[in-house]
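User: quick one, sequence for these tokens?
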């Protein structure tokens, strides 16, 4: 039995990081145009921080089924990074993924508020 994310949770995870991969050393854009003007391409995945099923990576049997399928247990990654974190769970721990998520959401907030440009513009006064 798998506690998969709903479509709403997946979209929420993607939007909260501006459809960019949450891996701080990747940050690639995961959405773009398809040739058909009515369609788009998504190369991102809503990955489980702790696995959706008991045989999956970083499974946590102390949380409920609802918690397992909630936004709090998800992180938006590109397909490469999604594969990466699930194939080396010793390196990519729950704590690491939660840190990536926090930083990616913070970066998205700065960007959506227009503050990321100020912080990288050497002429701008930060404070
Ligand atoms: Zn990535």
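Assistant:
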């Amino acid at each position: 039995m798998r506690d998969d994310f709903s479509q709403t949770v997946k979209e929420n995870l993607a939007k909260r990081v501006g459809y960019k991969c949450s891996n701080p050393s990747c940050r690639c854009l995961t959405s773009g145009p398809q040739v058909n003007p009515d369609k788009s391409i998504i190369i991102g995945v809503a990955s489980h921080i702790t696995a959706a099923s008991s045989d999956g990576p970083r499974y946590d049997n102390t949380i409920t089924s609802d918690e397992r399928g909630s936004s709090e247990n998800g992180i938006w990654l590109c397909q490469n990074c999604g594969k990466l974190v699930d194939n080396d769970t010793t390196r990519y721990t729950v704590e690491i993924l939660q840190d990536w998520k926090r930083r990616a959401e913070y970066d998205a907030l700065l960007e959506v508020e227009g503050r990321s440009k100020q912080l990288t513009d050497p002429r701008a006064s930060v404070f």
